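Dear all,

This email documents one entry for the complex benchmark we are building for the journal club exercise. For each entry we list the sequence lines for every component of the assembly. Then comes the predicted three-dimensional structure of the complex as a token string, followed by one or two observations. Please use this as the template for your own entries, and keep the labels exactly as they appear.
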Amino acid sequence: MQWLTTVSTWMIPLIILLVLIVGTIKQVPTYETFVEGGKEGIKMAVSLIPFLLGMMVAIAIFRASGAMEAVVGLFSPLLQLVGVPSDIVPLALVRPISGTAALGMTTEIIGTHGPDSFLGRLASTMQGSTDTTLYIITVYFGAVGIKRMGDALKVGLIADFIGIIASIIVVSIVFG
Amino acid sequence: MFNGTMADVNEELFQTADDAVMLSISLMSVLVFWLGLMKIAEKAGLLELLARLFRPLIKRLFPDIPDDHPAMGYILSNISANLFGLGNAATPMGIKAMEEMKKLQPDSDQASRSMITFLAINTSSVTLIPTTVIAIRMKYESIAPTEIVATTIVATLISTFGAILVDRFFYSLRERRIK
């Protein structure tokens, strides 16, 4: 599995090299084009600020006020009923909402139960196989100024739920 | 009020507002870098090549995007970046893909069908190498830090496939409502 990490570290420099070589062969003015494209990035980052700030502050209040804990407590019995281990319930509920909180929980589960325990493997799989839906929706829609996002949130959250259940089933089968 | 956490809320509120600005600014560096590089790739015809290679697959997922539209190339580069765990490259390419899709409907602030499909694929996270998780497992001295790669890939495949199905389902609901 060592080769996986090697592939990851070589990937970016190789992509850069490839793009620059092909660009030079096709006689694209590489530096001017880079600057021109890069300029868009500044505008995008700035226009992201209000969207990100609004979403992150809302989540922070939700978390710091204890409301998140209350909601997690409310949903725990329901998730346990469908077979989610009780230690993993908070992670499953928080994963789509807050990336930092989820990463913290995963680290804690791995720390207390050990990385090679069932819970440690389950938390690892869950963390890796889904993404922070709320953050992605905010960033992608925010950057292009989409305010009515249709079914995107619903679809994203249902997909997260599928991912969580899939993680439990797959880890149970492979390591159970 | 009821939990006695108001002081925490106040502190957290402004701390997070600060974090959000810092995060946006730190996104600026990867945005400038990758968008600059991708512009070269676009002009050199690399994105078009990528789009042409995967056209049958991507055409089925995004039937509303016309052939040879630059959005295709950016969608594919976003998905490839995700696949190889290049998180910081995936976001700029994803945003750029959204921008190209927005150009197909310039006067609307409503998410299009293609945008929702694209978001569904992204939120279910198509990753092959969960680098962060492997790093945490190494830190806690796992005897096999990468043994979760296979389970992660299978779980990801299921959730991505599920996301596409759910997206299709909601799309057909919307269509029915219009009729």
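Observations: Chain A touches chain B through 95 residues (CB under 8 Å). Chain A is about 80% helix and 0% strand.
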